[in-house]
Structures are given as structure tokens and as C-alpha cells.
Amino acid sequence: MTLDFGARTQLGDFSYDARFEAGNEIVVLFGHSGAGKSLTLQLIAGLLRPAEGRIAIGGEAVFDSATGLDLPPQQRRLGYVVQDLALFPHMTVAENVAFGMTGAGREERLGGLLDLMHLAEYRDRRPRSLSGGQQQRAALARALARDANLLLLDEPFSALDESLRVELRRELIRLRSELDLSVIFVTHDLREAHLVADRLAVFDAGRLLQFDGRERVFRQPANRRVAELTGVSNILRGRVAEARDATLTIEAGGSSLRAPVPNGWRPGEGEAVDVAIRAERVNLRRLDPDDPEQPNLVRGTIREELGYGATHTLRFESALGQPVEVEIAARPYEVLGVAGQKSWTLELPPEDLHVMPVSSESESGAPRASATTA
Amino acid sequence: MTALRARAPYAGVGLLIAVFAVFFLLPFAGLLERGLGDSGAWDAITSDSALDALVLSLWTSGISLVIAVVAGTPVAYWLAHARFPGKGAVEALIDLPIVLPPTIAGVALLTAFGRKGLLGGPLDDWFGLTLGFSTVAVIFAQLFVGAPFYVRAARAGFASVDAQYERVAHTLGASRLRAFARIVLPLSWPSLAAGAALCWARALGELGATLIFAGNLQGETQTMPLAILSAFESADGLTTAVAMAILLLAVALVALAAFWLLSTRGRGTA
After folding, report:
1. pTM of the model
2. What's the ipTM?
3. Distance (Å, rounded) from C-alpha A142 to C-alpha A11?
């Protein structure tokens, strides 16, 4: 099953423009609320009509503004679980699940689906009498009952407590491999996105900022905004002093950092760039920061400290002229004796630095406080 | 002490409720006392004029109800979902017959559909069709005063059904008609049933508009309320009026009870 999606539309002040494709995988649409994630699902399902674009499910177009094609929702073969589930309250679980079934062998397929979702013993119950997790599974079963290989899930686990969420995520990953599904999964939860995504589409203000494999998005965000949204707390502004082979030398606040040339893009000398590094990738060292043999060492002083039990978040004032956040596990925190020492040498390993273009995307609109200065 | 003081206002309220209840129950008691104590009552309600009126009342109010439901349901559904400028005005216009005195409704119907009315005039001139003072006029009058009760209740019922259910039904392959029949109708059924019952009761009791627009011809336009009015004004007066009133009351109670049973059962199995 494949999905080819491209749509552009305008809703009041909100302009939307995105295109991506999905194969047999879980594509997570990630972003803050109002970024356009749920809208994307509604466009795919045909509940909203874009101004322009083309949407094809399994190679067959269901919407094409060029030819005027626009199939109504009931003719698009997909399963859609809306955020509030919307189980039909006047029907039993079995009636709910069977609602979208057609053709022969309904009873048999219904039984199979109820077994698959562990709902067999609740088949004659009304949705209201089910627990949150059971309702969730009933809604999922109902969406699967259409025998569609494209599943749209809108924040499907948001109403559940953590233990149930873990269980259902596991179930979803199992279903995907058992039923040969393409899943489009909307969430604003970064951890959830990381856990279920094969590929990640990062939305912000109606734009698709980056669409890549999960690791690629987390390790090599396309720009400052993607880095911010995916939880990169250190985004340093600098200037390329030297671009040689596979290595860049970047000046920031009088210090210089070495970083690999990013994939598919090569900044010129003198160009302004953003350099991202996750807080947990920065190391605390006792080395002399001016040692010419050791690259990417920077002097720093702890200005703020937050203890989360398992980890500590330290905020440094650094020789880069910009604050640097460091996340350190409880054990090294104790071994290093961080509590008793304010002044450290920060190591920013070159392989963990990611250089991004200073895009117009992150510069436009109201100035956003980056995570490093917030 | 405090308990006594706390109970005092409740005692006052209780008395008020009792007086109010007596006020409503006493007229029914009077009706029964007068009707059952009078040997002429049975003759009165088995007279031709009473039976004619009863039969006419039942079938005209039935047809009014059917028209109100068939035509009113799409209107109510549209009003529950559409958003357009002046929607409030449209809704107020639909509610207007509810608050309008029935005699005014009768005069208004006459000026529209009467022989010299806006539409009635041309109909009479061109086709020789006269609506006023016919059984059709009886139905018109009942529809005019009764249908708004149904539309109002149905609109509220449809609006109370989360639109998300219908959207989900569409994504599950249901056409608009199927989504309406399987989702909207069962979920709004109590409102629709209540509205239909009110509409029918209002049509059955219609007097003022019918009298002015349809007249009072036995077997043709004389419905039960009109027959009761005529009896009341005739020589033997109250005896016949009371007997017919009891008959109409009994029929209405039986019909509403049957309707209530059907609608609650319908809810259970839907």
C-alpha cells in the first residue's frame, strides 16, 4: 500500500502546503497543535477539500485538482481513527466494528477482528461501559474492518495513561507487520513519535519542514525550527571560517568548532550557519580548553541546574558567547563531582555537531526564543 | 431545633405544590364526575356527530403529522447544520406559529389560501379549486400550528448529535443516507418522538384556526374540538360537551401511551 500526498489550501489566515509519500511503514506527522497534522488526515480522508493538489491511495488518485477528481470519503478506502474515537454510542462493540464491513463472510471476519484486538468478550457491550484502552482498540478494530491498508490515526493514545499507551504502541507495531499496513500517525508527543515512527514528517504552521527517516530527522534536522521541535536544546549561531574537504571550521563567539559537512549541502566560507547538538551529547571534561591537540573544547561555567532524578540538566555560560545546555545521567554526575565544581571544559564532539543553513523559515515571523536562550 | 427551622420553608413549598397539583387535577376530576354520573353521556358519545368528529379528527391529525415529519425532517436537519446569515430570523419565523394566537393563524391562512387569498384566489380563478372550508383546510390549519413543534424538537435533536459520528460513518463507507439512518436517526430518536407527539397533540386539539379557515361542517370540517364547542352552545349543552371531551381525552391518552411505548422500545433496539 502506498500513499502519495500533495495538497495546498488556505483556511482563513492559515495557509497549508505539504507533500509526502508513504509505503508500508508508519509515518508520524509530528508538530505542535495547529501545525496542520490533523488537517492532513482530513484531507486524505476527504473530509476537507484542498484548493490544489493530488492525493493517491495505492496508486489510484482520490483527489486531483488538475482533473477535478474528488472522491467523497465513503469511496476512499482507508481506516480513520479520530482523536476522540467517536465510537457510535447506541451500538455494541460488535455493531461498531461491523459498521464498515461489506460483502460475504462478515460474521467470520468480525470474529477474527475482535479476537485480533482482544475484544471478543466485550462484543455485546456498549462503548460507554468499556475502559479507555478497550475503547481505543474498538475504534482501531472498526477502522481496520473496512479492509483498508491505509490507516489514519489522530493522536490515538492521547487520552490514555502511560502504561496503556506503551501496550497499544506495541500492538500497533505488531499490526503493521501482520496486516501489511501503511499507517499515518499524528502526535505532538516527541517520545511517542520517536517510538513508533519509521519516517517522520515535521509540521509547523501549515508547512512540512522535514520528511525523512526517524534517525535522520533527529540527528540531522533540516533547520533550526526542526531542531527546536525535535528537542535539540543547543542551537548555536556561527560563521563558517573554513570549509575543507569533509570538515567545516565554524567561528562562534571567538571560539572555533569543527564539524562535518552536512549531507546534501555545503556552506561557503563566511556563510552564517546554525550548529545543533543535543544536550546529552555534550561531555564534561577536566582538560585544558586551549589544548591545540584537542578540538571542540570550550570553557563553561554552570549558571543553572535542574535535577530530574535520573538525569541532571546543567545550563552553562560558555566561551561560545551563547549558553550551552548539558544533560548528564545521575551516575556520572556523582562520579565527576559536578555538584562541587562550577567551572568545566565542555567537549562538543565533532561527529555530534550538525550544521544547518540559516533558513528563511526560522527567521520569518515573530522572533522565536530558541531553546538555548529560553 | 435547627432541624425544625430548616424544614419550615420546605413545608411552605410543599403546600404550594399541593395547591398547584389540585389546580391541575380538579378539572379532570370534574370532567369524570360529571360525565360518568350522567346517563345521557353514552348516547352523546355514540351519536353520529360525535363519531364523525372523532374519525375526522384522528385521520386529519394523522395526515398532518405525516406531512410535518416528511417535510419537517429535512428542514430540521438543514437548520441544525447549516450556517448562513439570517439563520436566526429563519428559526424565529418557524417558531412563530407556536406563539401566535390560533385565531390569528386562521385569519392568516384565510388571506393566503382562502378563496380571495394570495394563492387561493388564482387557484379558484384558474382551476376552480377551493381550499377554504374543506377538509384540506382542516389539515392546513393543523399543520400550520403543529409542525413547528416537530421541527423545533427535531432541530434540537439533530444538533445534539456530534457531527464527528457522521464524519466517521462516511470514512467507514456509509453514504449520507445510510449515515443518517444508522447514526443520526437512532441518536436523535427521543427528540424526534417527543416533537412528533407534541405536533400530533397540537393538531388534535386545534380549534381557533380551524374554525376561521375551515368552518364547522359536520363530517367535513367539524373536528372533535369544534364538535365540543358546538355541543356546548346547543340546547342540552354541557352533558354532550363533557362526554365528548372525555372521549377525546381517552383517545389522546391511549394514543400517546402507545406512542411512548413504541418509541422507548425503538430506542432499546436501535
Report:
1. 0.81
2. 0.80
3. 30
